[in-house]
Amino acid sequence: MNTPKRIAVVGGGWGGLAAAVEAGELGHQVVLFEMARHTGGRARSVQIDANTTLDNGQHILIGAYTETLRLIRRVGVDPQFALLRQALEIRYPDGSGLRMARGPASFAFAMAVLGANGWTAHDRWTLLQTAASWWRNGMRNPGVRTVAELCAALSERVRNDLMDPLCIAALNTPSSIASADVFLRVLADALFGARGSSDMLLPRLGLSALLPNAAFAWLQERGHRVQTGHRVQGLLATTGKWLVDGEPFDAVVLACSASEAARLTNPIAPQWAAKAAALRYEPIATVYLQRNAEALRCPLLALRSSPQAPAQFAVDLGSLGVAGRTVAFVVSGARTWLEQGLDRLATAVQAQALSALPGPFPGPSALLLHTTVERRATFACTPGLARPPTEIAPSLVAAGDYIAGPYPATLEGAVRSGILAARTVSAGAKSSNGVAGAGSLPAPASAMQKSVA
Description:
There is one protein chain. The protein has 453 residues and is an alpha+beta fold. It has 3 domains: 6-44 and 209-279 and 388-427, FAD/NAD(P)-binding domain (3-Layer(bba) Sandwich), CATH 3.50.50; 89-190, no CATH class; 281-379, Alpha-Beta Complex (Polyamine Oxidase, Chain A, domain 2). Helices cover 33% and strands 22% of the residues. The chain has helices spanning 14-25, 66-74, 79-82, 105-114, 121-136, 147-150, 156-171, 180-190, 207-210, 212-221, 258-265, 270-277, 335-340, 342-356, 411-427, and strands spanning 6-10, 29-34, 45-49, 52-55, 61-62, 83-86, 89-91, 97-99, 200-203, 225-228, 235-238, 241-244, 247-249, 251-254, 281-290, 300-302, 313-316, 326-332, 367-379, 391-393, 396-398. The strands form 6 sheets. Strands 10-2-1-14-21-20 form a 6-stranded mixed β-sheet, with helices on one face. A 5-stranded antiparallel β-sheet has the order 16-17-18-15-19. Strand 1, helix 1 and strand 2 form a beta-alpha-beta unit. Helix 1 (14-25) packs parallel to helix 10, helix 1 (14-25) packs parallel to helix 15 (411-427) and helix 11 (258-265) packs antiparallel against helix 12. The longest helix is centred in the last third of the chain and has 17 residues, at 411-427.
C-alpha cells in the first residue's frame, strides 16, 4: 500500500475522470479542476434548447475498449444497458459492404471479406492476400509512411469502401497523410484482436450519462472535490509539493488539452511544452437531421463521401432510443468543409441525405436540427509524429489522447492514459511510457475508436 497522497487532476475530460477515479480507488484524495462548467471534454452532451439534448459529436465505442468499459462499470453504469453491441459493419445504403461474423478474429475477417456484397473476386483476393502479408510481417510495413501507400495494391473499390472509411473513422486523418504504422496497429488490435474486439458499441445514452455524470457523482460521493468553472492559472514546485493556484498537492496530473498543458508547463519544462504546442489538429463536424417515421436500415450506415457529399457515416439515434427521429451525419476530417462555412456544410449534408437515403429523408428537404463542430477533435495522426511523453517532472505527469503511444486519439487512449498517470504518481516512481514501477495495464485488445468520432 502506498502512502495516501493529495493529487490534483487538471481537466475533466475522459482522461481526467479516469485519472481521478483511479487515484481515488488507490486510496488518494483527489481534487479535480475543470475550466468548463461541465465535465466530459470533447465527449459530452449539450443542451440545444429546452426540449433537445444532443452530443457534441457522435462517438462509437468498440469491444476492444476494455479499460473504458471497466471504468464505466466502476462508476455504476451497466454497459449492457447503456450500449448496443453488434458485429462491426461497414454497410452502405445500397446494401454493399461487409459485416464481421462471430468467431475467432482472423476467421471472422476472412469470412466477412469473402461475403462482402458488391465486391468482385479480384477485390476479395487482393485484400486477403495483402492482409495476410501484413499479418506475416507482424502488422508492420517498414518504409511505408502513409495509409494510401500501404493500400496502393488494393482495388479502388476496397480502398473506397473499406480502407478509407476505416482510416478516417479511426485516425480522423485522410489516408493520403495518415500514418501507416498507427493504422496497422489499429487493424491488428481491432480486426485481428480478441474475440469480440471489433464489435461496435453504439451508445443508447447521451455521452454525459455514459460516463462523465456518473464519474462526477462517484467522486463526490467518496469525498473528492470536483471544481468546475476553474481554469488553473499556474503551477509552482516547492519542496516536496506542487502548488496549483497556491493550493498544495503531492502530485499533479495534467489531463487538460495539449495547448493548456503547454501553457502551464512552459515555465517548468519548456521542451515538453514545445512538443505539446506543436501538435496540429483535424476537426470533426456532426450534422443532426430529423428523419420521417422510416428508420435507417441499420443503426449505423457508411456513406460515400465526395467533394459534394461531406458525411462518411450516418447514425440513427432514434433507433437507439437516444433522440427521437434524429440522425447524426458525421463529417470527419472536415477542414475543407468548415472553410466554406457551416451553412454550406449543413446544406450539403441535407442534399446528401436526400440522395443517399430517399426513404427516411424524402424530398424536398431534410429538416436541420443542429450542427456541432469540434475544431480540435483529434491531433493529425501523420507519419513520424512526435507526441509528448507521460512524464513532465517529478510527481507531475500528463494524461490525454495526445500523449505518446501506439494509437490515434480515441476514448480508450484517453482513459488508458489517465489510469496510467494515476498509477505513476501513486507509485511515486519515474516511469517510461510503459509506466515501469507504476503497475502497467494489460495490452489492449484494440484501440480504434473514433469518433466516428
